């Protein structure tokens, strides 16, 4: 699905390599060593979309550290993260308790979230600089409204982030 969206029916760019992986079973460094297209001397663009909220905090920190270690200067990391609810539980804001139960039943309980205000400090501690954090409101205003999709339903409480590797 991601390949289809990224290439929109065109031939994928030569520098695009999608590397699907289960990061609970394989170390990022090992996966990258096994990828012929990966050049550790060149900047890379890493994506962890809809992933980090399922990892415990130590695994999230380890992934940030692994990406920082693997990313040459100029590398970027796009990821999504959850905003904790006001009561500090993890889940989509305003969602029905049935959704929380359904996610647990499916084996998808949320384990990690980061308040948006804490993001720059967290990233700095892992060798990254925040370039952008896109909330639901920003997504609607800048990306959906121009396409006439302002009223499409979106999950509230998850935001998209782009960070740059600042140290290795």
Please tally the β strands and state the result: 4
Strand arrangement in the largest pleated sheet? 1-2-4-3
Major sheet: 4 strands, mixed
From N to C, what is the helix and strand string?
HHEHEHHEHE
Q: Helical amount among residues, as a percent range?
A: 25-40%
What is the CATH top level name? Alpha Beta
**Residue share in β-strands:** 15-25%
Oligomer: single chain
Radius of gyration: 17 Å
Count helical runs. 6
Number of domains: 1
CATH architecture: 3-Layer(aba) Sandwich
Instruction: Report the span from N to C terminus.
Output: 32 Å
- Average pLDDT across residues? 86
Give me a quick take on this structure.
By secondary structure, this protein is an alpha+beta fold. Helices cover 30% and strands 15% of the residues.
Any overview of this molecule?
With 168 residues, the chain is of the alpha+beta class. The chain has a single domain (43-165), classed as 3-Layer(aba) Sandwich (Rossmann fold), CATH 3.40.50.150. It is 30% helix and 15% strand. The protein has 6 helices and 4 strands; from the N terminus they run ααβαβααβαβ. The protein has a 4-stranded mixed sheet. The radius of gyration is 17 Å and the shape is globular. The model has no long low-confidence stretch (mean pLDDT 86).
């Amino acid at each position: 699905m991601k390949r289809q969206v990224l290439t929109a029916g065109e031939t994928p760019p030569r520098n695009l390599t999608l590397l699907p992986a289960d990061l609970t079973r394989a170390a990022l460094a090992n996966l990258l060593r096994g990828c012929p297209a990966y050049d550790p001397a060149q900047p890379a663009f890493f994506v962890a979309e809809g992933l980090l909220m399922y990892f415990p905090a130590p695994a999230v920190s380890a992934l940030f550290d692994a990406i920082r270690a693997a990313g040459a200067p100029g590398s970027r990391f796009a990821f999504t993260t959850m905003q904790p609810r006001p009561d500090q539980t993890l889940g989509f804001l305003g969602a029905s308790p049935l959704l929380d139960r359904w996610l647990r039943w499916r084996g998808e309980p949320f384990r990690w979230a980061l308040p948006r205000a804490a993001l720059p400090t967290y990233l700095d501690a892992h060798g990254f600089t925040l370039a952008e954090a896109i909330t639901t409101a920003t997504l609607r205003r800048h990306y959906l409204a121009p396409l006439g999709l302002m009223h499409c339903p979106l999950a509230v409480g998850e935001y998209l982030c782009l960070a740059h590797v600042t140290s290795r």
